Amino acid sequence: MSIPPLAFHLKPPVVHTDRCLNARHRQAGCTRCVDSCPTDAISLMTGPRPLPTIETTACVGCGACIVACPTDAFSEALQPETKLLHLQEEFPADEAMGLTCPQQSAPDQTTAPIRYVIQHERCLAAFSPEQLLSLSVDGGREVWMDDTPCKDCPIGKLHEALLTNVAAANRLLTSFRRPQNIRLLTREPDIRQTTMHAVAVLQGAAPKVSRRGFFRSLGKLAKQRVDEAVQRAPMPLFSPGAPVDQRLPYHVPTSLQHLNEHLAQLAENAAVVPETGLETQGFPWADVRISSDQCSGCQLCARFCPTGALNYLWGESEGDTLFNITFHPALCLECNICIAVCPEDAVMLTKTVVINELTASEHKLLTAGYLVPCARCGTLTSPLPGEEALCYVCRAPTMYRQNTQRSYLAGLAQELDRMIEGDEDAK
């Protein structure tokens, strides 16, 4: 796909394939970066693990993949959104601000009730929900996003991503009874002014601030460079020489850490942490459930979990061997790997989480049970109700034979039904 004519063109992000969910497990099936790219510049490599690659000649540096990827597999040396976040802190927290993209040819004219607007370096869809929360000072400041150029933009498909990010941030604010102060110009006809008025325009790449604010911002930018250098450092999937159950190390992405910091701040300032459900579209969070009747305690879900959201513990108690699996939704990336690796189809995932479970300090219990040696290989397993004590590996051939027999008998039954129907038709 050729590069569309845009008012901006930034360098492609760096791809860290070792962080990709598809590197964690070949059946992860993650395509979020590919789906988010408006120029089809990202594709997945063929081979045992479909890792992402960028066609640099097709990339416009819009930043959509950075927001879409839950594991921070895409990064930039100095992300424009983070730079703008540091600089906007120099402006009054209660002063409404506007944001527009380079496609806006008249940024100094608006119908939004604001006195100044910052023209960002690229598409506004590059702001994640967490960054939008920062811009709005957790709902304390009105932020007007000018999405009027989207309808004629060559990468206008990103308007849906912008809508999703804004809606997600506002839903979280509403959950804590904070005002939905992140606004889209095309979605607020009742609040906008009826006529255009002039506003001051600041360039997001280099807004004018006070000398004191300038040096404060330099310090923050220096810290950001250190943080981003840490992000760019390689994180190996496997640790050579480590025990098997330690070869898949946990890592909480920086973007998720920042989001959870906002969550903690909202909870700290709330009189009561809500116990209501939060629909998490636009956020990485999800809720996981495990069917106790189907779980065999194999620990694969926890072993492959990339962040430690799922945790497996086992030990001895009064001569019995016990296990439990716990979960924390604030660490979940909705990667679906736990579903892919479960040999018992015991794992379920939903995109609605309970607020007070998100803010809880401890994991919650999903399932627990007894472990006994497998009758064939001795591996500890939790027998399924009414079945022989076999681990999932030893049980697989038996299940295959049973399924084959069931399919064969079902085929015979269908053939018998057809024969009976034929006899009745002949009569």
Q: Can you offer a commentary on this structure?
A:
By secondary structure, the protein is an alpha/beta fold. The protein folds into four domains: 77 residues, Alpha-Beta Plaits (2-Layer Sandwich); 156 residues, no CATH class; 107 residues, Alpha-Beta Plaits, CATH 3.30.70; 37 residues. 31% of the residues lie in helices and 17% in strands. About 11% of the residues have low confidence.
Largest sheet: 5 strands, parallel
DSSP summary, beta strand count:
19
Indicate the mean pLDDT: 85
Overall radius of gyration: 26 Å
Measured between the Cα atoms of the first and last residue, the distance is 65 Å
The SS-based structural class is alpha/beta
- The number of helical runs is 12
Q: How much of the sequence is in beta strands?
A: 15-25%
Percent range of helical residues? 25-40%
Protein traits:
427 residues, alpha/beta, Alpha-Beta Plaits, 4 domains, 5-stranded parallel sheet, 4-stranded antiparallel sheet, 12 helices, 19 strands
Outline the fold blueprint.
Blueprint: E1 14-15, H1 21-24, H2 32-36, E2 42-44, E3 52-54, H3 64-68, E4 74-75, H4 80-88, E5 97-100, E6 109-110, E7 116-119, H5 129-135, E8 143-145, H6 159-175, E9 182-184, E10 197-198, E11 200-203, H7 211-232, H8 254-269, E12 277-279, E13 287-290, H9 300-304, E14 310-317, E15 320-327, H10 337-341, E16 347-350, E17 352-354, H11 355-358, E18 364-373, E19 380-381, H12 392-426
Parallel strand pairs: 5-7, 5-8, 7-11, 8-9
Antiparallel strand pairs: 1-4, 2-3, 6-10, 12-17, 13-16, 14-15, 15-18, 18-19
Helix pairs in contact: 4-7, 5-6, 5-8
